[in-house]
Specification:
By secondary structure, the chain is α/β, with parallel strands linked by helices. The protein has a single domain (11-137, 189-257), classed as Rossmann fold (3-Layer(aba) Sandwich). It is 34% helix and 20% strand. The protein is built from 8 helices and 10 strands. The protein has helices at 48-60, 84-98, 110-121, 138-143, 149-158, 176-182, 212-220, 241-257, and strands at residues 9-12, 18-24, 34-38, 64-67, 103-108, 126-132, 160-163, 172-175, 198-203, 226-231. β1 (9-12) and β2 form a beta hairpin. The longest helix is centred in the last third of the chain and has 17 residues, at 241-257. The protein is globular.
Length: 259
């Protein structure tokens, strides 16, 4: 059966939001850490990477959890109401209420920023991190930093601007709240006190997040156990079979590394 065939379950939050999620159950006797997949900005858990990870985890009997942030996919809420802080809180709720024991976080693009924030908030729960085109600080460096003055003025005055997206038909809603909240969660401006193993994969022809971001991030992390894999012909999605295999291999390595 397809990993996306059954209806998702939902986790109610105190504010009335319901987060859609899907789980792969752990095989009896399997002692490896679970896996939590964190998707990107305006993406969801049924994309190529989330679906492929679920199928792979199912085959090997390793627990996996994927979910949609509020305002994404099948979760409730409006996308324009979301911020980095709000979506990090969603990820923490899922981690706290739907998983047990050590977890490997796999973060794609924005999910790579959120996985870092979750690891800082719950260091004792995290066995390792795998970043796929991880994009910490993207709201400041890649959105606000790239906006022409007239767009910045429009955003400040109206609270929202719309940008075309190459990944979906509808334009992306970028809010003033997203930018301002993002500034409260910036990581690349100082040391990042994460001490677990980290594996970063980044395509060198990524049009959205420069591959140099992976090098900046690796230099800021406190842990010495960091590996950066640069894929010369890789794009932002890193969803080809050979790219996915690199992700699987990184998770497998971290799974075997965990006591």
């Amino acid at each position: 059966m397809s990993p996306n065939a059954a209806p998702p379950e939902s986790l109610p939050l105190p504010d009335g939001t319901r987060l859609a999620y899907r789980r792969v159950a752990v095989r009896a006797g399997d002692a490896r850490p679970g896996i939590v997949f964190l998707s990107g900005f305006a993406s969801d858990m049924t994309g190529t990477k989330g679906t492929a990870l679920a199928a792979w985890a199912q085959e090997r009997g390793q627990a996996l959890l994927r979910f949609d942030y509020s305002g994404h996919g099948q979760s409730s809420g409006a996308f324009r109401d979301g911020t980095i802080g709000r979506w990090t809180a969603d990820a923490l709720a899922v981690l706290d209420q739907l998983t047990n024991g050590p977890q490997i976080l796999v973060g794609s693009s924005m999910g790579g920023w959120i996985m870092l924030l979750v690891a800082l908030a719950r260091p004792n729960r995290i066995a390792g991190l795998v970043g796929i085109a991880a994009a910490p600080d993207f709201t400041e460096d890649l959105m606000w930093g790239a906006m022409p003055p007239e767009m910045r003025a429009h955003l400040l005055a109206d609270g929202i601007v719309h940008e075309p997206s190459q990944y979906q038909d509808a334009p992306l809603e970028i809010t003033r709240a997203l930018i301002e909240d993002g500034r409260r969660h910036l990581l690349l401006r100082g040391d990042i006190e994460i001490h677990c193993p980290v594996r970063l994969l980044h395509g060198m022809v990524d049009p959205d997040v420069p591959w140099e971001t992976a090098l900046r991030l690796s230099g800021r992390l406190a842990t010495a156990d960091v590996t950066v894999t640069l894929i010369k012909d890789g794009d932002h999605r890193l969803s080809r079979d050979r790219d996915l295999q690199r992700v699987f291999d990184a998770i497998d390595e971290l799974s075997r590394q965990t006591p």
